[in-house]
Amino acid sequence: MRRLLGPRMLPLAATGLVVVLLYLAAGAKFHDSNWFTYRVLRDLVVNNGVLGVLAIGMTFVILSGGIDLSIGSTVAFVGILSATLLGQGWSPPAVITLSLVCGVALGALMGWLVASFDLPPFMVTLGGMFLMRGVTLLINDSQIAITHPTYLASGKWPIHPAAGAWLIALVVALYLLHYTRFGRNIYAVGGSEQSALLMGLPVWRTKVAVYACCSLFAAFAGVAQSFVSLSGDSTQGVAQEMDAIAAVVIGGTLLTGGRGYVAGTVLGVLILGLIQSAIIFANINSWWTRIGIGLLLLIFVLLQRAIQQRVDRQ
Amino acid sequence: MAQPPQPSPESTPLLSMTGIVKQFPGVRALDGVDFQVRRGEIHSLMGQNGAGKSTLLKVLTGVYTRDAGQMLLDGRVISPRSPLEAQGEGISTVYQEVNLIPDLSVAENIVLGRQTQRFGFIDWRAARRQADAALARLDLQLDVSASLNSYSIAIQQMVAIARALDEECSLLVLDEPTSSLDQQEVARLFGVLRRLRDDGLGIVFVTHFLDQVYQISDTITVLRNGRLVGEWPAAEFSRIELIARMLGRDPASLTEAEAGAAPPSPVAAAEAARLVAHQLGRRGQLQPVDVEVGAGEVLGLGGLLGSGRTELARLLFGLDRADSGRVELAGRAVRRGQPRSAIAAGMGYSSEDRKVEGIIPELSVRENLILALASKRGLWRRLGRAAQEALADRYIQALGIATPDAEKRISELSGGNQQKVLLARWLAAEPSLLILDEPTRGIDVGAKAEIMALVADLKARGMSVVFISSELEEVVRSSDRIMVLCDRAALGELRGESKTEQAMLARIASAHQEVSGG
After folding, report:
1. Is B18 on the interface with A (CB under 8 A)?
2. How many CB atoms lie within 10 A of CB A205?
3. What band does B257 get if pLDDT is binned at 50, 70 and 90?
4. For A67-76, A131-140, A225-234, B178-187, which range has the lowest pLDDT when averaged over its residues?
5. What is the pLDDT of residue A110?
6. CA-based angle A163:A164:A168, to the nearest 5?
7. What is A10-313's CATH number?
8. 10 Å Cβ neighbour count for B158?
9. What residues of chain A lie within 8 A of the CB of B147, using their CB?
């Protein structure tokens, strides 16, 4: 409890409180509807599982002080690749493995460019974004249905594929970030790259691995997406990287790097999801979701700055 | 293979650098320097600007690679090519700025990169124990799970040392670790260093504070102009001799000089002084001083590098915000930390670092020249092009700036001429007080003489000047009075008969004796 209310965990606890309050407030407004049902909570997790995985991957990059704009395109690429190869008779394990390998390869390439040539991550991953979207459209510029029995059977799984993917991603990320040297080096590089170098930490290796990791999570999200939508769609995931960035920032991770938690990112995704659900329940124009997220993002950034300044002054 | 006979470990130095050469384009930063550190010794490395101290440290810690010479640690030849490799050899460095990760916990900052792992998981309890043990070596007890930035800079510095020691180091290099510490914190750090020395560690210590050198060191090595001047046991090396060696003077001629400088006293000027600064100071930068400069008077600031000369200039001009005292120019109060206010009151400051803080290389001579004036006049009273050109031509003539025309890019001029443009910049703004910080650094002899003549001319025309130079002789020649500074505090004033280079050095040296004796 003391740790939870300490200066480092306080922002996270506050964000958690916001999630609960938001949920209760929406419940008070829609008390005559079925807001307080298992179904709503289940949909909240299921509908945001893919974004949840993406945002977790994004947390790695942002913690290291970088950014990755290519993840939305990677989701589309994996979807189209899976649908095409499954249609040609590939087995699901082979397709999934290839997808993940492609993700790691793309991420490692971008990480190598960022780390070796000191290029701005924004530009490198913007390049990656166009590249992956282009390759996707080259393979197929429309939608391909997936009819493989394994995929069709996923509806009968004990856990929804999107929810399962989110859970797996969360456990893996918690382990990597908090219980491995690699994870701690990410925090160090994001906190102060110069210091990390002088402390003798493997900065180059960490940076490359961070981007590889993020793209791996993105490819994994793409696999989950193809199970959920049972199709590959070349327009999938447009601007989804922006949602992921918003979730990470709302979750309390500093865009400058070095400070933040995966758990916060999960809360950030839940907040975005709650806004969306509430707006659907209120039956108003869905563009209000965007407006809501936009305003919330600005408020959260301000709030974080205020909390940060208080902590720093102590 | 037959081992050569090894001398006993007591007699081999821990570190032995011989004939180290480091060449940069156009400069030989190190020219065959020898440097030795023994076990259980705190060794101060001293020298003025450009002596080669920092280059030598960078060669030692793997930031630079040497061009020639040999480096032995514990009898082994080493050639570190990065700070990481130097650490692997047992050379740990603590820098002036704390190079740790402020957001992570103290424990993590100590064990980062060397965490104990169990079954692929970091063992956080072991990490905290390891950190506690490392801090215990320094007699320090902290809550190691609190984040580093919740502690003072001094404690953070200690954590950096604890991390360095946790790395199995045999040689600890401290590069100006005390510059942001107060006296108590310094005392605490020194206590730790003495313990480590008694444990047999070799410690290299670099600082600008002469006093601290004598408090802590066993041995002093002096460098000058990239060459070794010599190595002395601190106890047998008098302060005046140290200063003389750093400046390249003959110590014999100095010891005879009388230390009889006037004690700090207010100016007994008949008319009110033009510049009055009362108890001006800033924690960690300058102890409060009183400064007065009359009309048509040149006040020289004398002292070694790091003595507080530039710090005083920056406080006067408001580049750094003073946390005590006030400044008045011609009866007008200058607002703290606001150079614009200083300029409006009639002050000008030509900074020490011409390249970084002075010229704007891409602009022409004319554009560089009108900058201060334009800023003084403000956005709405722009100077017409014709007026600008006339002004530029006038100063090019008056100061003898060697340029074909006013439109030439300033970066294409020589150092001396750039300096003249900077002077012209301030002169064009017609200040009543001009601060010149190292106006003669890095320019040729002829240009130096011209700048000095210009200072005399300004003085004759009634301008007040604060003159700073590392060349004590220049300060003596061009100033009416000299304020002597040392270790970030004013020591007193020299004027009239006593205003000599010898007296200035004696004053600096004797101040140290008084402080450490008392």
Report:
1. no
2. 13
3. very low
4. B178-187
5. 97
6. 120
7. 1.10.3470
8. 25
9. 7-8
Structure tokens at B336: 């703290």
Q: What is the pLDDT of residues A208-251, one digit of tens each?
A: 999 999 999 999 999 999 999 999 999 999 989 999 999 999 88
Residue B261, pLDDT score: 41
Helix (H) or strand (E) holding B24: strand B15-24
Does residue B152 belong to the interface with chain A, where contact is any CB pair within 8 Å? no
The top-level CATH class assigned to B32-237 is: alpha beta
What is the rounded (10 degree) CA torsion for B297, B300, B301, B303?
A: -160
Rounded to whole angstroms, how far apart are CA atoms B214 and B509?
A: 12
In CATH, the number for domain B275-517 is 3.40.50.300
Closest residue in B to A194 (Cα) is B99
- Contact call for B104 and A185, based on CB within 8 A: no
Q: Which of A222-236, B251-265, B339-353, B376-390 has the lowest mean pLDDT?
A: B251-265
Chain-wide mean pLDDT for chain B? 83
- Write out chain A residues lying below 8 Å of B150, CB-based: 7, 314
Note whether B303 and B309 are within 8 A (CB): yes
Q: What ipTM does this complex have?
A: 0.86
Residue A146 · residue A230 · CB < 8 Å: yes
> In this complex, which of A180, A187, A195 lies closest to B99 when CB atoms are compared?
A195
* B32-237 matches B275-517 in fold: yes
Confidence of residue B512 (pLDDT cuts 50, 70, 90): low
Q: What is B46-114 written as a DSSP string?
A: E--TTSSHHHHHHHHTTSS--SEEEEEETTEE---SSHHHHHHHTEEEE-SS--S-TTSBHHHHHHTT-
Give the pairing type, strands B27-37 and B15-24: antiparallel
Closest-CA residue of A relative to B161 is A199
10 Å Cβ neighbour count for A27? 15
In chain A, which residues have their Cβ closer than 8 Å to the Cβ of B108? 184
Chain A within 8 Å of B101 (Cβ-Cβ)? yes
Query: CB B99 to CB A199 under 8 A?
Result: yes
Domain boundaries of chain B, sorted by first residue: 32-237, 275-517
Q: Is residue A199 classed as helix, strand or coil in its secondary structure?
A: coil
- Report CB contact under 8 Å: B101, A312: no
Per-residue pLDDT reduced to its tens digit, A243-281: 999 999 988 898 888 989 999 999 999 999 998 888 888
For residues A210 and A65, the answer to whether their CB atoms sit within 8 Å is no
Residues of A in contact with B100 (CB under 8 A): 192, 195, 199
CA distance B204 to A82: 62
For residue B100, the chain A residue with the least C-alpha distance is A195
Q: How far apart are CA B211 and CA B195, in angstroms?
A: 20
Interface check B83 vs A, CB under 8 A: yes
For A7, what's the count of Cα atoms within 13 Å in the CB-facing half-sphere? 19
Distance from CA of B354 to the nearest CA of A (A): 27
- Rounded (5°) CA angle B267-B477-B474: 110
- Mean pLDDT across chain A: 90
Confidence of residue B97 (pLDDT cuts 50, 70, 90): confident
The mean pLDDT of B154-167, rounded to a whole number, is 86
- Asked whether the beta carbons of residue A199 and residue B112 sit closer than 8 angstroms, the reply is yes
Tell how far CA B91 is from the center of its chain.
24
Of A185, A195, A200, the CB nearest to B84: A200
Where do the domains of chain A lie?
10-313
Examine the pLDDT at A310 and tell me if it is beyond 80.
no
Whether residue A199 and residue B104 make contact (CB cut-off 8 A), yes or no, is no
* pLDDT (average), residues A291-302: 85
Q: Does the CB of B108 have a partner CB in chain A at under 8 Å?
A: yes
From residue B493, alpha-carbon distances to B263, B299, B476 in Å are 7, 10, 12
Query: Among residues of chain A, what percentage have pLDDT more than 70?
Result: 95
